[in-house]
Amino acid sequence: MDSGTPGYEDEGYAEAYWRRRALALGAVLLVVGGVAWSCMGGAEEPPVHKAAGTGSASPSPSGAKPGPVVAASGSPSATDPLVLPTITYTATVTATVAAPRRPGDVCAKNSVVANITPTRPQFRPGERPSFRLTVVNTGELDCTFDVGAERFVTRITTGPYKIWSSAHCPAWAGSSIQLLRRGIPYATTFEWNRRRSSSGCAAGQDKVSPGEYTVRATTRGVKTPKQTFTLLAPS
Q: Which UniProt keywords apply (predicted)?
């Protein structure tokens, strides 16, 4: 075999040559594939890390899109709910306990019943009408009550006109404190001089005319029923 004809040595060289080319090409393909895989992997969303100090997040339902990640901030944003302070009021109730009543205390107005009545329904000309005032203690204990004319005022009227008041006359004014026994009436009787009265009980007041009159007594919220009587005209 002469040197111009390729022999087995040339064939071995060619085989080695193409093997090296194939290895080089494979290496290039591996590099290109690795770069492509890296690019595709970088397109995925980066993992969301929990902020330090926050609680564990609940897992999202399967297939649900992840919500937006809100960066932590030191001050509330406009979308944060308004948190109002809790105000607690403490009320202090002070109960006032009334002192227990004792015998001899002033009578309560709701424990006194009073009445005034003319001694007769009619009075003859020149006769002074007289009236009987009674006061009864209906409470549980004996108590004191002022039946004086200064507090227990008797008034005589006819129609809309005021005729006489015991508060006008000094002789009637003053206090008369009485101890009222439970259930036992206190009674007193007084007369009217058939004249009008004015402040100070000035002398020379006019005599009243015959007709029908009304008498009533009041004191500290206690009122007697109205009673009528008649002054007869001369026959």
A: Membrane, Transmembrane, Transmembrane helix
pLDDT value for 125 = 95
Q: How confident is the model at residue 51 (pLDDT cuts 50, 70, 90)?
A: very low
pLDDT tens for each residue of 190-202? 999 999 998 877 7
Cα 190 to the center of its chain, rounded Å = 52
Residue pointed to by tokens 């329904």: 121
**Structural domains in the chain plus CATH codes:** 109-231 (2.60.40.10)
pLDDT attached to residue 52: 47
Q: Which residue is it, tokens 């809309």?
A: 160
% pLDDT > 90, the chain: 38
pLDDT in the model for residue 3:
47
